[in-house]
């Protein structure tokens, strides 16, 4: 079919078609914009309502906690926890001397004997004094106490060795003084004894 319309009319029809298409796109765009606006408004209202609902729940929970004296109970639990930690700290430093004396006596070599035990001001240490028949036996006392297989002390240092006439016992002329530091897993500390006495 041949189009015999003048060029002005042809161009008017072409622009009219384009205007119709553009008008449809503008209407669709406006409908989409109104839809997005509606969704945004609905979302904002829902968010606002849930915030208001949760604020009410928080206030109600806070009132329940205040009635149950939550802060006072929390403080009491904290105080009890602090007291328990103090008990554990004190018990970790308590020594079971009945068992400790047996173990130390078992480590003292022949020709020597224990003359005294003093609790030192140093945390976890004890001063031990012993008498021996000679210098070698006196040093053996320190070697035996420092032996890790005994599980008593992590280290034992000689403070003093004197050999001469022991006024109290002339058969044992040498005296030795040792400072010993308890081992970490010492079974003779109350906290490590697991209830045995």
The Cα radius of gyration reads 46 Å
Extended strand count? 4
Structural domain tally? 2
CATH top level of the largest domain is: Alpha Beta
Give the CA-CA distance, first to last residue.
119 Å
Determine the CATH superfamily of the largest domain: General secretion pathway protein M, EpsM
Give the % helix.
40-55%
Number of DSSP helical runs: 4
Can you tell me the residue ranges where pLDDT is under 50 for at least 5 consecutive residues? none
Strand content: 15-25%
- The quaternary structure here is single chain
Major sheet, described briefly? 4 strands, antiparallel
**Within the CATH hierarchy, at the fold level, what is the topology of the largest domain?**
Gyrase A, domain 2
Net shape: rod-shaped
From the 3D coordinates, which CATH architecture of the largest domain would you assign?
2-Layer Sandwich
In round numbers, the mean pLDDT is: 80
Order of helices and strands: HHHEEHEE
Major β-sheet strand ordering: 1-2-4-3
Structural class by SSE content: alpha+beta
